[in-house]
Amino acid sequence: MYVRIANADDAKYSELLCEWYEESARMRKTGIAKRNPVYLERKMRNGNAVIAFDDDDQVAGFSYIETYEEEKFVVNSGLIVRTDLRSSGIGKEIKHAVFKLSRTKFPNSKVFSITTSLAVMRMNTKLGYKPVTFSELTQSDEFWNGCKSCKNYHILMDNDRDRCICTGLVYDNLDDDYAKEARQQNNDDNKNE
């Protein structure tokens, strides 16, 4: 299995991935926001997603990033793994790859995630995320509007976007090795122009 940054050629998988999100929501019964294939395609074309493949070159998993508040925040979102590959370790590889993408592409941004998945919470914690109240996450209406398709959206709104079933987690070490490397690369690129 392998994980790489997604590109325009991967857009052909967007509808399949959306089906996986819906299936996962039904299986977990906890609520997962629906994704739009066009939205996922845009993430792939912009290099703001990672995709995984199994040994037979069949899609195995996916995750993407989005920025908010003029890149003050970057969310790691939409981690999905093909059902027969769950517990194989590919989810952890995807999580690490999307985290690295976030830190290198947006080194000055706080990284956050909201989830109901214990497995995702564990992976985030190992990467250095800390649980936080929703007040410490982006306050962007665009982000929170993405929750509208979740069956628990009413809970979020009943609590003035302050609490829900999801747990919020933030990584805010803006001076980690990924960020230092990205800043150095940006400095080197600027000197060479």
Automatic annotation (TrEMBL):
InterPro entries recorded: Acyl_CoA_acyltransferase
SUPFAM superfamilies in the cross-refs: Acyl-CoA N-acyltransferases (Nat) (SSF55729)
UniProt name for this protein: GNAT family N-acetyltransferase
Organism annotation: Faecalibacter macacae
Native organism taxonomy: Bacteria, Pseudomonadati, Bacteroidota, Flavobacteriia, Flavobacteriales
